[in-house]
């Protein structure tokens, strides 16, 4: 029978399943080394429970409480990159792609973000179908099935 090893602390902490616990207790009846180790772990655990928690200094508690109080306004955020490059101003995120400020064609259900999404799905579907058909034609163009087509020769009759 092997010794308990790492199962000693699991036995002391009550983390073993019923079957594992029964095996460990049966092992302890015959193995004095493991029994002594379990007893020392139990004694250590009871000594640790009897210790008082560490006392917190009053100034540490007050400084932590003061950190949670609301303060003044936050400083303005700095731009992580320079605003100019070689004297030329760099475009911002809104200047690259302007907003769509065209007037709407009407207040009907055929306009709005739903129509744009629907047309995007249609476009993606058409492109996918074109790619699939192109792949089909390319892969079947190199394959020949059956005998080559017969060539018709015209002969003139005198």
Automatic annotation (TrEMBL):
Signal found in the keyword field: no
- Describe the location of the Putative zinc-finger domain by residue ranges: 6-35
What Pfam families would the database entry show? Answer: zf-HC2
Region entry Disordered, spans? 66-118
According to the UniProt entry, where is the signal peptide? none
InterPro entries, per this entry? Answer: Anti_sigma_zinc_sf, Znf_put
The yes or no answer to whether the keyword Membrane is present is: yes
Q: Where is the composition biased (Low complexity)?
A: 104-113
State which residue ranges cross the membrane: 120-139
Instruction: Give the record's keywords alphabetically.
Output: Membrane, Transcription, Transcription regulation, Transmembrane, Transmembrane helix
Q: What is this protein called?
A: Putative zinc-finger domain-containing protein
């Amino acid at each position: 029978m092997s010794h308990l090893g790492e199962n000693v602390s699991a036995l002391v902490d009550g983390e073993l399943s019923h079957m594992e616990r029964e095996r460990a207790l049966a092992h302890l009846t015959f193995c004095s080394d493991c029994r002594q180790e379990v007893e020392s772990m139990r004694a250590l655990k009871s000594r640790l429970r009897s210790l008082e928690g560490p006392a917190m200094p009053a100034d540490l508690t007050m400084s932590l409480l003061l950190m949670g109080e609301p303060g003044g306004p936050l400083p303005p955020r700095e731009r992580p990159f320079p605003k100019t490059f070689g004297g030329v101003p760099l475009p911002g995120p809104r200047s690259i792609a302007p907003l769509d400020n065209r007037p709407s064609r009407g207040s009907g259900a055929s306009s709005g973000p739903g129509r744009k999404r629907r047309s995007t799905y249609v476009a993606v579907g058409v492109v996918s179908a074109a790619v699939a058909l192109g792949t089909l034609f390319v892969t079947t163009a190199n394959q020949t099935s059956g005998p080559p087509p017969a060539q018709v020769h015209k002969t003139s009759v005198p």
